[in-house]
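lol forgot to send this yesterday, sorry. struct tokens for the thing we talked abt
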């Protein structure tokens, strides 16, 4: 009745060109042994919502406005990207993941800093300060007046990106012109730590559980929108509804609103979902990640955008009644699986080859270590058809020690990433440059052989807490 949970362990491989080769070889070896789980570019549709509310797509992998900066003697393109928000609106972002490339038509989602390459970065708050005090939040004319120089959009964008890389990847990026150099230096010297911005929209917890005849929750709404719309999924069982803390039907919510699933007594064991959606401006400084290894971005400018979040409820009259959620934890280098049990019997599940039991009325979090750049695929099953699947790629770290390419000046933003160049003897993105072209391949194969020979080791850390 309970689950089998699998993950694809592997070695942390810094460069993306090597990573792709190593991943392919590793996959081939594990398939031969019958041990691989199918990876997916994003969380499964039935997984609980992430901690934030914006999903967007990067159609064009190149910067939309920017210029050239020099890093370790290499000329690189730097500037702003533009992402299209699902449901309407656009957002502008800078790169906070210099040595990884972008991918066209890639889906991104808003996350906390702890779920991104900013996890554990003591300078993350300085990046937000730069975003709030430079282009595009401040015009080139105003920036130029402050510094007594003449700036245009391209120069301001490149200089701002250079200052951001100083704190995100800890490199010295130098704009090609004197005005840009002055702006970068000014931003680096003036930057001070600012607190992480709140999510545009989030629901917590993402899943609740209980018995029919009660209001299951609460699910608390956190948003900067003036008003959000609340809707129950159309496939919810007859009689189930969404109510507020007083038991009254609810169709709208504001920040702090508590939502409950009202499940009539006698309802057969089952589940339902609700969606909260709104139109709002996403706070500057929110991180955006992709589960397809495209470089991490940070929000620099926004229009009014569509945001949404999903929460679900499970219920049964007796036995174990589980609620399970998953969240990347970049600080720990893994995925936190949190299971709670609102039933009257213990809930037992299997995770990474070990069984875990959550007593009635309790909750437990298990952190499954996952190697950087590695795909994971967890499925947890329980009573009454309960099943949750969590898929993704752990892409948390920058590669600050990786040498950048030696390229020639780029006259305009290219189709390469903000940290990449299509020129030079080796070409490609930053992840594939530095050293002999055969060196990454040899290193990748060697790492794969070590992994296959040594096997995979999962170390589980558990922490128990009382139920909600």
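and heres what i got for the seq, position by position
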């Amino acid at each position: 009745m309970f689950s089998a949970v699998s993950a694809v362990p592997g070695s942390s491989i810094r460069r993306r060109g090597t990573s792709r080769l190593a991943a392919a070889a590793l996959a081939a070896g594990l398939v031969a042994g019958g041990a691989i789980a199918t990876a997916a570019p994003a969380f499964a549709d039935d997984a609980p919502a992430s901690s934030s509310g914006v999903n967007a797509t990067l159609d064009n992998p190149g910067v939309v406005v920017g210029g050239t900066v020099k890093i370790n003697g290499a000329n690189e393109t730097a500037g702003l990207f533009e992402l299209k928000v699902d449901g309407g609106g656009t957002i502008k972002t800078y790169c906070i993941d210099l040595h990884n490339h972008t991918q066209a038509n890639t889906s991104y989602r808003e996350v906390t800093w702890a779920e991104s390459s900013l996890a554990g970065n003591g300078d993350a708050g300085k990046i937000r300060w730069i975003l709030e005090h430079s282009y595009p939040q401040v015009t080139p004319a105003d920036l130029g007046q402050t510094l007594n120089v003449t700036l245009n959009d391209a120069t301001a964008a490149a200089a701002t990106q250079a200052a951001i890389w100083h704190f995100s990847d800890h490199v010295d990026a130098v704009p090609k012109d004197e005005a840009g150099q002055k702006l970068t230096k000014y931003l680096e010297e003036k930057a001070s730590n600012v607190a992480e911005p709140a999510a545009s929209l989030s629901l917590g917890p993402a899943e609740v559980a209980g018995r029919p005849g009660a209001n299951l929750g609460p699910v608390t709404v956190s948003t900067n929108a003036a008003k959000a719309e609340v809707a129950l999924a159309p496939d919810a069982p007859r009689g189930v509804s969404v109510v507020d803390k007083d038991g009254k039907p609810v169709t709208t919510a504001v920040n702090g609103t508590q939502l409950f699933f009202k499940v009539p007594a006698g309802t057969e064991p089952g589940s339902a979902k609700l969606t909260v959606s709104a139109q709002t401006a996403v706070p500057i400084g929110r991180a955006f990640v992709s589960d397809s290894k495209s470089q991490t971005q940070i929000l620099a400018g926004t229009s009014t955008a569509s945001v949404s979040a999903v929460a679900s409820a499970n219920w049964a009259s007796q036995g174990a009644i589980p609620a399970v959620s998953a969240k990347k934890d970049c600080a720990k280098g893994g995925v936190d699986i949190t299971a709670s049990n609102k039933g009257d019997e213990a809930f037992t599940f299997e995770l990474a080859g070990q069984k875990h039991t959550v007593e009635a009325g309790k909750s437990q979090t298990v952190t499954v270590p996952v190697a950087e750049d590695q795909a994971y695929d967890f499925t947890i099953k329980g009573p009454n058809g309960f099943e949750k699947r969590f898929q993704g790629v752990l892409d948390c770290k920058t590669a600050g020690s990786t040498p950048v390419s030696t390229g020639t000046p780029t006259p305009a933003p290219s189709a390469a990433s903000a940290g990449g160049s299509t020129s030079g003897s080796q070409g490609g993105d930053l992840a594939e440059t530095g050293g002999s072209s055969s060196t990454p391949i040899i290193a990748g194969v060697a790492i794969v052989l070590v992994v296959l020979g040594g096997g995979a080791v999962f170390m589980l850390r558990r922490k128990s807490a009382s139920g909600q």
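The radius of gyration is 24 Å. anyway ping me if u want another try
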